[in-house]
Amino acid sequence: MDALKKSKGPYKKRLNKKKSSSKRLSKKKSAKKALSLNETMKESSSKEGLLKDKTLGEKIIIVISIFVLTIFPFIVIITSLAVIIYNGVSEKKAETEHRIEKRESNEDLYGEYLYLDKINENTYRVVSEGENPKKRLEWDDEFCGYYDDMSDGYVWYDVKRKKWKYWFNGISTDYKDYGWMVYEPEGWKIQKDQVDWIELSEKYDRSKLWYIEQEE
User: Over the stretch 128-147, which tens digit does the pLDDT of each residue have?
Assistant: First the structure.
């Protein structure tokens, strides 16, 4: 029995040491939590104190400063992205407008109506209203050309190049932004792109095509 009591003695000591160390560790953790809580409370109170003892003007300046440092950068980023997108769209629009040939109004030259007299099957010449014209075409401001409902097409006079140009729906529309046509001694040509004019393909029906006799 004495031997058993002696053997239990060191075990109890070790057990007591473990309990005491656990208590110390628990106290340290509690102390750290309390310290952290105190620091948080101090930080919060310091922020509150930042505005507490300030005048209205100083408070406004502080609030504006916080806004500039936090929210303003996001506004700058969003604005910059918007400007980049807008510039991209504007450049694309400008490029498209550059490709499309500008048409000047012919109303100063021929008036609201263009009167045409027939020379032969597909050829006409410009005449006045009193000369018994075979065609009377009305100026279309939106399309900037004289419209002919018989052929579903437009015609306008390019003063710069001194050429009559034609747009026939069903043919010209295949060339999207381009497609204006001219009639030359060798036949019909159509605008393929900004500088390229090609012979009109034989696949198109020419039965409704007509042109104005070119003045020399």
Answer: 999 999 999 999 998 899 99
Contact 104, 165 (CB under 8 A): no
* pLDDT for res 79: 83
Alpha carbon 43 to its chain's center:
47
Eight-class DSSP state of 203: T
**pLDDT above 90 covers what percent of the chain?**
44
* Beta bridge pairs of residue 125: 117
- pLDDT over 80 (residue 5): no
Residue 147's DSSP bridge partners are 138, 154
| Displacement of CA 168 from its chain's centroid (Å) | 31
Determine the residue type at 181: M
Phi-psi region of 92 (alpha: psi -120 to 50; beta: other; left: phi over 0): alpha
The structure tokens listed for 27 are: 């106290």
Q: Which residue has the higher pLDDT, 20 or 194?
A: 194
Output the six-digit token pair for 10: 């060191």
Task: Report how far residue 101's alpha carbon sits from residue 30's, in angstroms, rounded to the nearest whole number.
Answer: 82
Structure tokens at 118: 């027939």
Residue type, 154: Y
167: three-class secondary structure by DSSP: strand
- Phi/psi for 114 (5° steps) reads -110, 120
